[in-house]
Design a protein that fits this description.
Number of strands: 17
Radius of gyration: 20 Å
Distance between the termini: 46 Å
Number of domains: 1
Strand content: 15-25%
Mean pLDDT: 92
Structural class: alpha/beta
Low-confidence stretches: none
Largest sheet: 10 strands, mixed
Helix content: 25-40%
Number of helices: 14
CATH superfamily: Alpha/Beta hydrolase fold, catalytic domain
Strand order of the largest sheet: 3-4-10-12-11-13-14-15-16-17
CATH class: Alpha Beta
Length: 433
């Protein structure tokens, strides 16, 4: 398939029953530089290969959940790339709803074109266009001093990705006035951050915030600056292998900073382009007057991390001594994820607050962090061995996934949810101001 973008032919490929336009360059930047918008130009662009990922270290503890796909991924120093996923019969004049996805990974892992985030099912079933975004991570994307080393470069990359979508999506059959920004975990955190940046006003009309770690936002300044000053002179000159070693060492510094150290990298508030946390809610309230909000978390978020994060395990044990284990899981899940979601649902002009409780009853990871991922991106070949779905046959995963994809797409299309049509594992409350 060929799309004509002014004088340029953009060539995509048919895969999984949809059209894919993969690895489009939305911005250019050297290491530690602010990104510059990239214009589609030239005679032909071949967009027929999945975009590589930003360089990252492999976290083996996540393999039982996600299958270790990153081990075989391609990597690049220049990850300002996005991919467009289009229903097969779409015409350039169709003006389909557009969903822009920001992946999770604690700001150090993941990529837009990993198969665990393949949106082909929601694209095929719900007749929407989905754009997946890849950007800088870790020391390359989220560590700086706000002067000679700019902070929040990964977030600045995402702004340019949104600018690119707004400028070009209509050439691919998308409606540039009906864009939903959605993300999971650190991607959801990015969605919230993009909501309060003046530069993004008008770039999207709806947001879906999936399990943003609101409880890890406060009191990060000292930790971030200590991480930055650790071997700072090596950041610009080190080769990528050395830099990833530095990133691993820098990440360990967070261990002495309590629960925040479980996600040592992240957006730096009060550094360009973000306001301070003191001004965050005020900015959100103003922006949410014109942006529809769907926000939520999963009922047992923290069970995914109890073994991997020692401090969280100790906190869990401390709470268990006072209340029952399941109640302890609920308390910690709300502290990190659920309470913040409810707080911002109440601040919005209108918001849908959701909670997901999906999973087999005896699966210790039911309703865990990321549990919606195999439902939204349900490729059996990718997810069939994940511990998330232990105790469920694939037919039930597909059945429930289709229901969840419908809710996500209906919100993206219309900004509304018919609560009567939601599945039992999805609890939704509506807030209006």
């Amino acid at each position: 398939m060929i799309w004509k973008v002014r004088n340029t032919e953009v060539r995509g490929w048919n895969d999984g029953g949809i059209w894919r336009v993969s690895g489009l360059k939305y911005a250019n930047a050297e290491r530690h530089d602010i990104p510059e918008f990239n214009t589609i130009k030239g005679r032909v662009i071949n967009a027929t290969k999945r975009a590589p990922a930003s360089f990252q270290n492999i976290n083996d503890s996540l393999s039982p959940f996600f299958g270790g796909e990153e081990e075989n991924a391609r990597y690049t120093d220049y990850p300002q790339l996005l991919s467009i996923h289009i229903p097969i019969d779409t015409k350039p004049t169709d003006k389909l709803p557009v969903m822009v996805f920001l992946h999770g990974g604690s700001y150090v892992g993941g990529a837009g074109d990993l198969k665990i985030f393949d949106p082909k099912r929601i694209v095929r079933e719900q007749n929407v266009i989905v754009v997946t975004v890849t950007n800088r991570l870790g020391v390359l994307g989220y560590l700086g001093n706000n002067s000679d080393y700019p902070s929040n470069l990964g977030l600045l990359d995402q702004i340019e990705a949104l600018r690119f979508v707004n400028k070009y999506i209509s050439y691919f059959g998308g409606d540039d006035k009906n864009i939903t920004l959605f993300g999971q975990s650190s991607g959801a955190d990015s969605v919230m951050n993009l909501m309060v940046i003046d530069e993004t006003e008008g770039m999207f009309q709806k947001i879906i915030v999936q399990s943003a770690p609101f409880g890890l936002r406060q009191n990060r300044e000292t930790m971030s600056m200590e991480m930055f000053t650790h071997q700072r002179e090596a950041y610009k000159e080190a080769d990528m292998k050395t830099l990833m070693g530095i990133q691993a060492d820098v990440g360990k510094i967070g261990s002495k900073y309590g629960l925040n150290g479980s996600m040592p990298f992240g957006a730096q508030y009060g550094h360009h382009p973000l306001p301070s946390l003191k001004l965050f809610d005020e900015k959100f309230i103003e922006r949410a007057k014109n942006v529809s909000v769907m926000i939520g978390s999963n009922a047992r978020e923290v069970v995914m991390f109890l073994e991997a994060v020692p401090l969280l395990q100790r906190m869990y044990q401390n709470v268990v001594t006072r209340i029952l284990p399941e109640a302890a899981i609920a308390v910690l899940s709300k502290r990190i994820y659920g309470n913040g979601a409810k707080h911002y649902a109440k601040l919005a002009k209108k918001a849908y607050l959701y909670e997901i409780s999906w999973g087999a009853r005896r699966n210790p990871y039911r309703a865990s962090h990321c549990i919606e991922s195999p439902l939204l991106f349900g490729d059996e070949a990718v997810w069939k061995d994940s511990v998330f779905i232990t105790g469920k046959d694939w037919a039930s995963v597909e059945h429930d996934g289709k229901k969840l994809r419908y809710v996500w797409a209906e919100f993206a299309k219309h900004g509304t949810i018919d609560v009567k049509l939601t599945p039992k594992f999805l609890k939704i409350n509506t807030f209006k101001n």
